Amino acid sequence: MPSDHLTRRSLLQGSAAIAAAAPALVPTGAAAARPTAKEGTGMIPVELTVNGREVHLQLDPRTTLLDALREHLHLTGTKKGCDQGQCGACTVIVEGRRINSCLTLAVMHDGDKVTTIEGLGTPEKLHPMQRAFISHDGYQCGYCTPGQICSAVAVLDEIAAGIPSHVTPDLDKVSLSNSELRERMSGNICRCAAYPNIIAAMNDVAGETKA
Amino acid sequence: MKFDTPATTNPIDKGRVVGVAHDRIDGPAKVTGSAPYAYERHDAAPNAAYGWIVGSAIAKGTIAALDLRAAEAAPGVLGIVTHANAGKLGKGNYNTAPLLGGPAIMHYDQALALVIADTLENARAAAKLVRIDYAPQDGKFDLAAEQGNAVKPPDGGFGGAADSAVGDFDGAFAKAAVRIDQRYTTPDHSHAMLEPHATTAAWNGDKLTLWTANQMIAWSVGEVAKTLGIPKANIRLVAPYIGGGFGAKLWLRADALLAALGARQIGRPVKVAIARNQIPNNTTHRPATIQRIRIGADKNGVIDAIGHEVWSGDLPGGGTETAAMQTRLLYGGAHRMTAHRLATLDLPEGNAMRAPGEAVGLLALEVAMDELAEACGVDPVELRIRNDVQYDPEAGTQRPYSSRKLVECLRAGADRFGWAKRNPKPGKVRDGRWLVGMGVASAFRNNLVGKSGARIGVDGAGKVIVETDMTDIGTGSYTIIGQTAAEMLGVSLDDVIVRLGDSRFPASAGSGGQWGANSSTAGVYAAAMALRAKLAEKAGYPIDQAQFDDGLVKLGNQSQTLAALAGREGLWAEDSIEFGDLDKRYVQATFGAHFCEVGVDIDTAEVRIRRMGGAFAAGRILNPKSARSQVIGAMTMGAGSALMEALEVDTRFGLFINHDMAEYAVPVHADIPEQDVLFIDELDDKSSPMKAKGVGELGICGAGAAVANAIYNATGLRLRDYPLTIDKLLRAQTA
Amino acid sequence: MKPFTYSRATSVADAAKTAASTQGARFIAGGTNLLDLMKLQIETPTHLIDVNHLGLDRIEPTPEGGLRIGALVRNTDLAADKVVRRDYSVLSRALLAGASGQLRNKATTAGNLLQRTRCPYFYDTNMPCNKRKPGSGCGAIGGISRSLAILGVSDACIAQHPSDMAVAMRLLDAQVDTVGADGVARAIPIADFHSLPGDTPHVETALKSGEIITSVTLPKPIGGTHVYRKVRDRASYAFALVSVAAVFGKDGGGRFAFGGIGAKPWRTPSADAAASSGAKAVAEAALSGARTTHHSDFKKTLVERTLASLYRQKEARP
Ligand SMILES: Cc1cc2nc3c(=O)[nH]c(=O)nc-3n(C[C@H](O)[C@H](O)[C@H](O)COP(=O)(O)OP(=O)(O)OC[C@H]3O[C@@H](n4cnc5c(N)ncnc54)[C@H](O)[C@@H]3O)c2cc1C
Ligand code: SF4
Ligand code: FES
Ligand code: FES
């Protein structure tokens, strides 16, 4: 497997004697090798459950999950701000976790459940977080907003699940605070900088769910 | 409607809808992701092909050879646009470098080709196969090195004259009891709006439609016409939603031009987004400055002489960063000078970014004022109050301010922030591992106005519809325009439909220079006045006695519904607001006072903002909710300019090397704590019938200086080269 | 992105075999580094082997009392793991200081170790870069180098290793468990895992072609007070200018590893030896041989200051 940053030059003299731990060589069976290219076309069938709806796509393996949503499924609520994992506009919730959909391939998610902003609510039937963003003016141009909202929803779940963050004083005592929310939301850049309003919206929703 | 005498009482003064906090009416579309942005028009251009821009790999020179064979042969490629096949192109009035380069290359990442393919993946991959051989030339990339070669730029443009002088600055400065003479630098800044420049283009015969991220629809129709050499009438621009702009999208840029050229070449719609890592070098940025400020004052801090010189650079034919402009107006002093000098640089083109001039001018001036306060032993808030002036200090008392509430802002802001608790001695307040300090700075931003038109109608159901090409770039235009219409016609905001950002609608002032809100709502006011007259006439009521309330036109105890008066076919009126010389006879500006508390780590010199607050006077605040968001957003951008934002120039290769959002840092959630905003009551009757002024840029003006002054108060370290990063603080500490 | 084919591996053996038999093949885990670089064609694999479904996502105790962390354990899960929080909290802290919540949900243990530098010249394919294109020169030397390394650098390359997690792994004397293309397993001490640039900056690790990381094993817990301090201008979602991982023992001893300053996650025995003499002494030892540019010179001061901050933090604790 020649690659451009690994060469065959042996650097291992010092390490050859280390005893190897037993690696997991067993197949898990958890995943079949399902996605394989259709002969000749280079296209790969991908099946996703997006916002509860099963979709079947034939995709160039280069297609990111973000582009699959935006360009193939026309779910343009998920935004592309950078395509490099640097802004968070593309945040969606996959199998219950928020991720940057620009830095993952659609084929890697064959069989996965994806929730996008469109799956959280509609103008007629808003998700509580969407409603809170409106009432706290947690946005301006609206471009980072779907990503912020997907993140915000997931962040409250992460806190509830006891997942610590960089600012958690005691790793075993995770609780909700403004500084927790700010740190956890920092992967979602808002150049319009509605930051305090977003935090207010999240507190609002967190309070509601608690009550 | 001509606005050339101060406004008197008018329907807006009712304040039933205007001036009341409202949720944005575009909110549901934005929070559900259903608002369509320029690259997302599957509805309008379902079969759009994908364009990918190939940028220049060198900063200056020419294309020696262009080999498209490999790219053309790549899978899915439908066409390639280059200078060689684009046909003759003009250059827009607002572009410095051609948007499609070649054979001459004027800056790094200048677009040299557009590769179009059936999919994004194919276009991006094929773009890498375009082979360009370059004949590079030496360029000038270092502002400091070129400072001595900078020249006086031609007067005019947005800024006015390059220089100004009143009295005997040199003499007065030399004699002053207290003198400040310092040099400050600000780096190049990137707008970094979240939505990249993007356009979907489609031709229908010789008619072109561009769904495009653009702040200035009417300007840009003209720019497209000029660049493509086609009549304006054949061009339609559509921009209902724009993912931020901050000045980056004032202009026609390469995405729009190349999408149009690409679509023409392949006979099919084409969409183009400028890749994030191309944006800093391909598009515009706020130019770096070197500034020298000299202030001479008496022992009490009262200014007698004030001088501000600014050096910036741009491509040949470009413009200055007008960073000394506010110094002509902000503080008193009998002896004054300002000067702007422009160096030729071969970096990407500089242009307007949020509050051009003031945003970086105040980063210097308001630190200089802090230095003066310290030198005189006067409280920095008090110092600014002492130097308040109620007229244009260059023109004298015959040119008063239309309204100037700087002092009120300083007092009220200081009060709310708890300024009295500040220890004037730097480096004295400790909280755990943090040294804590507070800083203040004045906010000042000119109030600009521009002709703005609108069309307004009532339909048979009594719904009010407003159409104007005004854009909402996050500024809240939809809502304030809706509020204006609702107020004028006596309906609720729910009964107003606002349509924006389409060149088929009457031309507005557009979104820029914080003129948009005031001018565009004044345009709606004008159109609504015309519609009121039509409605009253139809009702048979004298217009000067008709009342518009509850969806009714009333006269005494008679009334008729708008719906009935409009009839099945509806009733429409169109007008625009045109401004006379009130902005010449009076200085019109917006004011504020920024306060900031920072913590600086005693060991590592990390700076963290603990609180920000401010008081602002900007005429009538049309929607306090979205206005507050504009201000806090701008404060945050100001904080970014103080603490982290800088395009790093590689002076050997002539580019901004940190050209993505990981390397060009803008503030994130964790950087921004509570932000408190107070609006001071103010109605400016000389600004417009709305008695409003702009507010979208005011918040950035001075915000960064308040941060810098807080750092000084915390640490005793006075840094004058922005941004004030850890490396600079440590060097200052160990120097 | 250049076209590539894609397959999901079903077992480690299968993955290694495919890697060995397929020219230009590459493993993909979270994809958060590889895909970024592939879009820019800094990486151009012709085949991707998806290793996400190998069952390598478990964290298990080892018979020696340590912890085996599957190569595919997500950064979020590793940081949140109960045992890691309790016994190796410096690792939790390092992970949580890195990237963003979304990225950590995807990023894996192996991928994090193998993430490539954030040197801006490496990222711009028009610029010279010996790491990206051997022999083309180094854009960063004589250019913009504030964020780059000062230790372990060479005349060919001054790139920093950007990982936070790897710094804690280095501190904890982790070992990287692999299976080669030939199916043979081996363990590489973390100290030997990353290579220094020398005159071959494109060679970044001890991995051989087709070799897959299966897990990272931590020795048994060393107790003490664990701290990780990351210094950066932006409060979050930014790489370290300097980071220090430390474990302080009750006896006044301690060990230290450094991020942001090294061509690889940095650790020197002499710095550990100086632990009882305080921040200045540790910094001096750690920085021996440092080579700075006029942009990165501040990092020497910053290392000392960050250590001082850590000592303060330690003292503040019961
Ligand atoms: C904007 C941004 C900010 C970031 N900030 C930080 C930060 O502050 N601190 C920090 O530490 N990191 C940061 N990161 C980097 C992030 O941590 C890495 O991208 C991530 O850890 C890589 O893991 P991955 O699983 O996604 O790797 P991948 O991208 O999947 O793979 C990376 C490399 O590892 C190889 N590989 C993967 N798995 C295996 C295996 N099992 N065996 C052999 N080879 C394998 C791949 O072939 C590839 O070469 C940031 C990233 C981004 C985009
Ligand atoms: S420092 Fe290394 S990665 Fe950066 S340009 Fe030089 S060789 Fe390339
Ligand atoms: S678009 Fe994915 S992080 Fe910016
Ligand atoms: S609302 Fe514009 S970037 Fe967040």
UniProtKB/TrEMBL annotation, chain A:
Pfam (any one): Fer2_2
Transmembrane segments: none
One term of GO molecular function: metal ion binding
Signal peptide: 1-32
Domain of life of the source: Bacteria
Domain (2Fe-2S ferredoxin-type): residue spans on this chain: 44-120
The UniProt record lists the keyword Iron: yes
InterPro entries in alphabetical order: 2Fe-2S-bd, 2Fe-2S-bd_dom_sf, 2Fe-2S_ferredoxin-like_sf, 2Fe-2S_ferredoxin-type, 2Fe2S_fd_BS, Aldehyde_Oxdr_Iron-Sulfur, Beta-grasp_dom_sf, TAT_signal
Keywords for the protein's UniProt record, in alphabetical order: 2Fe-2S, Iron, Iron-sulfur, Metal-binding, Oxidoreductase, Signal
GO CC annotations on file: periplasmic space
Nuclease among keywords: no
PANTHER family reported in the protein's UniProt record: ALDEHYDE OXIDOREDUCTASE IRON-SULFUR-BINDING SUBUNIT PAOA, OXIDOREDUCTASE, IRON-SULPHUR BINDING SUBUNIT-RELATED-RELATED
Protein name: Aldehyde dehydrogenase iron-sulfur subunit
Source species of the chain: Sphingobium terrigena
From TrEMBL, chain B:
Record-annotated Aldehyde oxidase/xanthine dehydrogenase a/b hammerhead domain positions: 32-138
Matching InterPro entries: Ald_Oxase/Xan_DH_a/b (IPR000674), Ald_Oxase/Xan_DH_a/b_sf (IPR036856), Ald_Oxase/xanthine_DH-like (IPR016208), AldOxase/xan_DH_MoCoBD1 (IPR008274), AldOxase/xan_DH_MoCoBD2 (IPR046867), AldOxase/xan_DH_Mopterin-bd_sf (IPR037165), PaoC-like (IPR049648)
Pfam annotation, one family: MoCoBD_1
Name this protein carries in UniProt: Xanthine dehydrogenase family protein molybdopterin-binding subunit
GO molecular function: iron ion binding; oxidoreductase activity
From TrEMBL, chain C:
Domain FAD-binding PCMH-type: 1-223
Pfam family of the protein (one): FAD_binding_5
Source superkingdom: Bacteria
Keyword Flavoprotein in annotation: yes
Molecular function terms from GO: FAD binding; oxidoreductase activity
InterPro entries documented for this protein: CO_DH_flav_C, CO_DH_flav_C_dom_sf, Diverse_Substr_Oxidored, FAD-bd_PCMH, FAD-bd_PCMH-like_sf, FAD-bd_PCMH_sub1, FAD-bd_PCMH_sub2, Mopterin_DH_FAD-bd
Keyword Lipoprotein: no
Keywords: FAD, Flavoprotein
Protein name listed in UniProt: Xanthine dehydrogenase family protein subunit M
Signal sequence coordinates: none
UniProt-listed SUPFAM superfamilies: CO dehydrogenase flavoprotein C-terminal domain-like (SSF55447), FAD-binding/transporter-associated domain-like (SSF56176)
